[in-house]
Amino acid sequence: MVRVAALLLAAGCLSCLAGPSSARCLRGSRGVAVAGRGPNRRVARQAPASPKYDAAFITQYLATTYERDASAACNHAITAEWEYITDLTNSTKEAIYNEASLSLAAFEKEQWDEYFQNLDPEEYEDPVVRRQVEFLLSLGVSALDEQELKDLNTYELRMQNVYSTAKICPYRKQRCDLGKEGYELDPEIESVMAKSRDYDELAYTWKAWHDASGKHMRQDYKNYVALQNKAAVANDFENMGHMWQAGFETDYFYEDMQDLWDQVFPLYEALHTFVRRRLRAFYGDKMGEEDGLIPAHILGNMWGQSWINVYDLVEPFPNASSYDVTKALMEQGYNPLRMFRKSDEFYTSMGLQSSNMSYGPKAVIEKPRGREIICHGSAWDFCDRKDFRIKMCTKVNQDDFRTIHHEMGHIQYYLQYKNQPYMLRSGANPGFHEAIGDTIALSVDNPKHLKAIGLLKNYEDSDESSINALMKMALEKVAFLPFGLLVDMWRWDVFAGNVTESEWNRHWWLLREDIQGLRAPVSRSEEDFDPGAKFHVPGSYQYISYFVADILQFQLYRALCIEAGEYRPDDPTSPPLHKCDFYNSKEAGAKFSKGMALGASVHWSEALETLTGETELNATALLEYFEPLHRFLREANGDLEAEASPVSEDDASSAATTATTTAATLALLLLSILNRYL
Ligand SMILES: *[C@@H]1O[C@H](CO)[C@@H](O)[C@H](O)[C@H]1NC(C)=O
Ligand SMILES: *[C@@H]1O[C@H](CO)[C@@H](O)[C@H](O)[C@H]1NC(C)=O
Ligand SMILES: *[C@@H]1O[C@H](CO)[C@@H](O)[C@H](O)[C@H]1NC(C)=O
Ligand SMILES: *[C@@H]1O[C@H](CO)[C@@H](O)[C@H](O)[C@H]1NC(C)=O
Ligand SMILES: *[C@@H]1O[C@H](CO)[C@@H](O)[C@H](O)[C@H]1NC(C)=O
Ligand SMILES: [Zn+2]
C-alpha cells in the first residue's frame, strides 16, 4: 500500500509489506553507504575481512540459487502474512505468520553470514550486479538475534492489532456495548469525521479514537524504538531514522526535504488561511481564539491530512460547475469490481499492462464479513513474478476510486519491474512507488477526463469551475504536504533520541502546530500517544515517501502530459497543466513503462531522468499545476482581510491587527522550526 493522497494518502498504503522481517521492508531500508556529510551516512565500518567467494562465483550465485531461494522464502513469508492480515483473530494464522517471518529472517542471516557480509562492491564491474551487492551488504532487522526479532514482532503486531480492532462508542450513545454498537475506524469513524458538521461530536469522536488507539501503545512503542535502533546500529547506522533515510540514497536528504517544503510553503499558507477563515465563518467562536491555527478535528479527516471532505464549506464559486464523482458512481450503479476494471482500463489504454489478477478471486476488494481484517488499502507482490493482489475495503465513492488508481499504480510498478533480479524488484526509491498511481489519478480526476468517460454530465467549463476543480485537488495534495513531512520528522527525532520519551506527545503537537498549523481540539498530555493514532506509526511504515510522492507525481504528470502532446510548457497557447489528460496516449505509456521497468537497478535520479529529463526532486511542476488557484487564493485572502475590518466599530481595528499579527506569528513559527532543523 502506499499512500493515499490525502485521499490517496489518507487511504494510505504500503509498498513495503509490514512485518519486521518482511523482505520488502528490508529492501526498503537498503543500507547503501553514502558518501558526503549527509545526515544518513553510515558510521565507519571496520575494515572487512576478505570475501570468501570471488566475484565470478557471487555473480553466478545471485542469478541462480539465490534468485530461486530468496524468491521462495519471500513468497512463503508474504503468503503467511496475507493469510494473517486478512483474518486477524485466527491465532493459528498468527503463529504461522510469526514462524514464517522468523524463518525468512534466518534465511537472510545465513546467506549474509556465508556469502555477502564481506563483499566489496568495487570488485563488480557490471553496475547491476554491483548494486545488488551493495544492497546485500545490509542485513536490515535480520541482524537482531532470534529472541529480539520475536520481541520486535510482538510489539509491532500488538500495536497493529490495537489499531485495527479499536472501537469507540457513538457520540449519541457514549456508554455502549462496544462489541455490538461500537464504531470502527473504517467505515463509521471516518464517516463521522468526514460528514459531521457538529463541532462537539467531532471533538468527541476525535478524542475517543485517540483514546482507543494510540493511548494503548506507548510502552510497546518504547520497546519498538529500542530494538529498531539496535538493528540500525548492527547495520552501522547511528539510528533507525538514518537507516530509513538511507533508502533514498541522497547525501542531504533532510535538507532536500526542507528545501521542498520551503518551495511549497507559500501555497500551503495561502490555502490554510483561506480554509481557516471559511471554517471560522461556519463554526464561529466554537473555534476558540483566533491564533492562526485550525483545530485538528474539523477538516473532514482524523489527521487533518486531507481536507477534501470540507469542500462544501470552502467552495470558491458555488454558482460555477463543480463535480461530484461519488454521485455519478452511485447513479450508474458502480460496484467495487467495476471501479477496478475502470481503473485497469485507463492503464491499458496507455499500452501498460493489465493488473486484472490483482483484483481477481485471490484478492480482497470488499470488507469481508465474519472476520477481522486490516482494512488499510494495500498492494502486494508475492515475489514469484505472477501473484499480485490488492487488499482494500472498497466503498463506492470518489475517494476510493482514486485510491484504487493509487493501489493499481503499485501493481503496475510490480509488473513492470518483475523481470529484474530479486534484490532490484523494488521502486527507484520509496517515494516513486507511492507516486505512480497518483500520477495516473491526476489524469483521471480531472473534469475533462471524467466527462469523456461519462462520469460527469452538465458540466460547464469556465475559469470559475477550473478554480473549483483545482481547489478540490489542493484540498488533497497541498493540504497533505506538511503532514507528509512531519510524521517522519517526529520519528527521526524519536529514533535519534532528540526528544525524550517523557516529551513524545508534546513534540508531536509542536510539529503539528508549527508545520501543519493545526492545534489539538482538546488538551493533551503525556498520558496520550497521538502519533500512534495514525496507521503508519504502529505499522512501522516510512511516511516521508508520501511527501516525496506528493511532489514527484506532479513532475511525472507534467512529463507524461508533454509526451502525450497535451501540454506545451513554452507555448502560451497551450492549455494549462491541470487540464491535461493522457488517457489513450501510447507515447506517454511507453515513457512511463521504460522508467518503471528499471525498478531499483539504477539510482533514482537516473530513473527520474528517464521519466522526466530531470534529475532532482523539484516542486516547480506542482506549483505550475496550482498556479491559477494560488493566484485566486492570494486575491481572496487579501480581499477578506480588507473586508474583515468593518465588522464591529470598536473592535474593528484591533481585530484586524490581531488577524495580521497571528498570520505573521504563524509564518514565523513555521520559519523558526525550519531553522531549528537546518
Ligand atoms: C484458522 O486458520 C487455520 C489455518 O489456515 C484454519 O485451518 C482454521 O480453520 C482457522 N480457524 C478458524 C476459526 O477460522
Ligand atoms: C449565485 O446564484 C444565486 C442565485 O442564482 C444568486 O442569488 C447569487 O448572487 C449568485 N452568487 C454569486 C457569488 O454569483
Ligand atoms: C486478465 O487479462 C488477461 C489478458 O488481458 C486475460 O487473458 C484474462 O482472461 C483476464 N483475466 C480475468 C480474470 O479477467
Ligand atoms: C539531535 O541529536 C544529535 C545527537 O545527539 C545532535 O547532533 C543533533 O544536533 C540533534 N538535532 C537536533 C535537531 O536537535
Ligand atoms: C526546479 O526547476 C526549475 C525549473 O524547472 C528550476 O529553475 C529550478 O532551479 C529547480 N530547482 C531546483 C532546486 O532544482
Ligand atoms: Zn501506496
UniProtKB/TrEMBL annotation:
Disulfide bonds join 169-176, 375-393, 561-580. It is an enzyme of class 3 (hydrolase). Its EC number is 3.4.-.-. Binds 1 zinc ion per subunit. GO terms for cellular component: plasma membrane. The keyword Hydrolase applies. InterPro entries: Peptidase_M2. The keyword Transport does not apply. It catalyses: Release of a C-terminal dipeptide, oligopeptide-|-Xaa-Yaa, when Xaa is not Pro, and Yaa is neither Asp nor Glu. Thus, conversion of angiotensin I to angiotensin II, with increase in vasoconstrictor activity, but no action on angiotensin II. PROSITE patterns: PEPTIDASE_M2 (PS52011). The active site is at 407 (proton acceptor 2), 407 (proton acceptor 1), 536 (proton donor 1), 536 (proton donor 2). Its cofactor is Zn(2+). Zn(2+) 1 binds at residues 406, 410, 434. Keywords: Carboxypeptidase, Disulfide bond, Glycoprotein, Hydrolase, Metal-binding, Metalloprotease, Protease, Signal, Zinc. Belongs to the peptidase M2 family. This is Angiotensin-converting enzyme. It comes from Thrips palmi (Melon thrips). The gene is LOC117640983.
